[in-house]
Automatic annotation (TrEMBL):
GO biological processes: cytidine to uridine editing
Keyword tRNA processing: no
UniProt-annotated stretches for the region Disordered: 1-72
Family: Belongs to the cytidine and deoxycytidylate deaminase family.
Protein name per the record: C->U-editing enzyme APOBEC-2-like
Keywords from the named record: Hydrolase, Metal-binding
Biased composition (Basic and acidic residues): 15-55
Length: 259
């Protein structure tokens, strides 16, 4: 993980991004913008365990440094890719990242809430959440590296994700399901990522063809995630005004993809 100065720099940058996203969210009417592509993942402020999955922290000193020669800012290498893993996410992350809007300004990471039920129900279900930062691999792939690494385990896995898989992740998940015959995966998505792109359509169709159950999150699903995976801290939650309408919109798009 980057050093303290890097983290402070990242926090300042994220606050600006979130502020801008809030302004954009208030502009215009419904369906004004298409769901945009996921840019590279930007870091957040996790209150959970952080696990490195790629490299060390040498040279990771912030977003930019000042050149001694001319006093100008020069870009430097970003901190290493990280996966944040814990039992619950912050209320802010849930309300912002999981909102099923038709645009995704500022929502440049994927949050994944999981439940793993083992065969026979003898053990307590394994629950938690993960989020990714600095995209070199995504949280969908990291789940099978860090949470469910045993390829022979028989279980039912349920995900609630802030965005549907990108083409690369869809392909990797398809391969996982082909190889792990005892694994059953259900994915509930808040938003569809770049749903009108041919490679997205092909990837989601392939994923469903190997047995994955792909659904959109309805209002009651957002309530369930809030109750199960969020640090509420005496806060209350009710689905936003257009939650049902956006759910219906995305359901139509998903039906078009899978027809």
């Amino acid at each position: 993980m980057a050093d303290r100065n890097s983290r402070l720099s990242v926090k300042k940058k994220e606050k600006k991004v979130e502020g801008k996203a809030s302004e954009e969210k208030d502009k215009g009417g419904k369906k004004a913008d298409k769901v945009v592509k996921k840019p590279e993942k930007s870091p957040g402020e996790p209150k959970a365990e952080v696990e490195k999955t790629n490299g060390g922290d040498e040279g990771a000193t912030g977003e930019a440094k000042i050149s001694k020669e001319n006093g100008e800012f020069e870009p430097i290498e970003l901190p290493p890719f990280e996966i944040v893993k814990g039992e619950q996410m912050s209320a802010f992350y849930f309300k912002f990242q999981f909102r099923n809007v038709e645009y995704s300004s500022g929502r440049n990471k994927t949050l994944l809430c999981f439940r793993v039920d083992t065969a026979g129900g003898e053990a307590e279900p394994l629950k938690g959440y993960m989020e990714d930062e600095h995209a070199t691999a995504h949280v969908e792939e990291a789940f099978f590296q860090q949470v469910l690494s045993n390829p022979s385990q028989e279980c039912d896995v349920t995900w609630y994700v802030s965005s549907s898989p990108c083409p690369a992740c869809a392909a990797k998940l398809t391969n996982v399901l082909r190889q792990r015959k005892k694994l059953r995966l259900s994915i509930f998505c808040s938003r569809l990522f770049d749903w009108d792109q041919p490679e997205i359509v092909e990837g989601l169709k392939a994923l469903v063809s190997v047995g994955c159950k792909l659904r959109m999150m309805k209002p009651s699903d957002f309530v369930h995630v809030w109750e199960t995976y969020v640090e509420k801290e005496d806060q209350s939650f009710a689905p936003w005004e257009d939650c049902q309408e956006n759910y219906s919109y995305y359901m139509e798009k998903l039906a078009e993809i899978l027809k």
